[in-house]
Each structure stands twice: as structure tokens, then as C-alpha cells.
Amino acid sequence: MSDCHGFVSQLFIYPIKSCAGIEIQTTLIKPTGLAFDREWVIVDQNGMFLTQRQCPHMVWITPGLTAEQLTLSAPDQETISVDLAYRGKPIMVTVWRDTLLADDMGDEVAGWLDRFLQVPGKNFRLMRFGNHSTRLSNKDWTQGLDRPNMFSDGFAALVITQAALDELNSQLAQRGHETVAMDRFRPNIVLTGLDGHTEDHLDIIRFDPIACGPELQLVKPCSRCAIIDIDPYTAQSSPTVSDLLSPYRRLAIVDNAICFGMNAVITAGGSQQIKVGDNFDADYKL
């Protein structure tokens, strides 16, 4: 008998790390996370990854996916496409503490990135996670087990309850601030039917349990940086969200960092479908 139940109300993927996301209705969950999520990354001429922390307007780069192409669009730029079948020269890239081989997506898209991002002294490349590369989540949080991810901040998926956002927005409105959308927090899976921040206390989540769907384990609170203060529509930053969360969302387990949502790893059902409306069962941590 499971401890709680609910359903999936939203799904998101972010094909290019730190760029705009895509809200989807259905996808596959693979051992590394949702299909195509954080499979590409933008790096500088030294192979160092780029995020909104250094370049807030990269949130205006909007990826799209077809059966054959990844597209990139941005304000005042022509849309550019990259064939999904294309993989260029492998190059070493660094994402946080990990250095690994990724496949270069070519000069044309690199020039497009330079023209849009326009960061003095920097040139950029679009890189795709290598077919033979491996990046593992921190074993301090995975019970010592190998749990892969791609170019995320360290785990295969991010899970947030809708009620957590509703609670935040209620407080923002009471203080006369504009409410924020779920995309401010860049989740992959949004759960409805649970109280706000119940995800903090869950262990295993089983999706579409009657059909033995995919299974996730929530392993680490998602500590938040300045990105939650960047409005994805204006690329402007304001501390309003962090200031409001600070009194009640600092968690001792992650050195009193502001947390919102839970990082998850895939424990069963790799390459199985998940879709909006799926039921789930979940167990609390012991």
C-alpha cells in the first residue's frame, strides 16, 4: 500500500542547458532522465559550460525539436537548425566538476550563438552529449549507486509539486508582487494531488503503476541559485523570489541553502513512457 497518490500535471524538457524549456505532453524516461533533456550545452572557447548565471539572456534562446532536427530561435535572429543525425568532432568540455567528451555541432550554429550572445572576449560552441560519454550523479546522494545524467546540474530529473508553487504565488500576491510561472524553477515533472513541498519527504515514485511504468527516487533537495530570480520573459533579475523563500525554504541538509523541488534519479523502467495525466503512487522516506 503506497503512502500517497496524485497525477502528473506538467512535463518539461530543456534540450540546451540553461536555455528556454519546452512543455511537452508525453516523452520517454531514459536512465539519464527525460528524452533530450539537457542533451546539449553551450561552452566557451575553453570548453567551459555557460549558464544564465553568467549570461541571463541565454534564456531567450528557444530550442525546438522535430523528428529530424534541433532548432534554435532567439529575438532578432533567424532560426537555425541542426540535424539530429549530425555529430561533429569530439571535444572535451567541463560542466561543474566533470570533464568529458561531447560532440561539436559545427561552425554555423557556433556563429549564430556568437552573434546573439555577444559576450566580449568569448566565442561559443554548441555541444551534444557524447554517445560513449558517462556522467554520474554524486554518489553521496545515490546510496553509492551509479546513476547517470547528461548536462543537468547533477541529477536525471527535477520534481516539484504544483502546490509548492501555489503557496509561493499566494505569498507573492499578498505582498503585492507579480506571481511567477512554474518555468521559473525549471522542473521536469510537476505533481498535483500533494501538499506543497511534500516532495521533500518522498522516496520512490511509481508512475502509471498499474502498467508498471517508470520509477524515480527523490534523492536530494534542489538548492537554488540566482536563476530563480531571473524573469525568463525579460531576462531581468530581481531578488524578490529568493527573499520570499529564504525564511521558510532553507534546509539544513544542504547547508541551509534555499531549496525548491527535489532532484531525482531513475531507478526502474528506463526508456518507458511518461505523459501528462499519468497517475503515480509514492512512498515516504523511512
From TrEMBL:
Q: What is this protein's name?
A: MOSC domain-containing protein
Among the GO molecular function terms of this UniProt record, one is:
molybdenum ion binding
Spell out where the chain crosses the membrane: none
Residues forming the MOSC domain are: 134-283
Q: Name one Pfam family in it.
A: MOSC
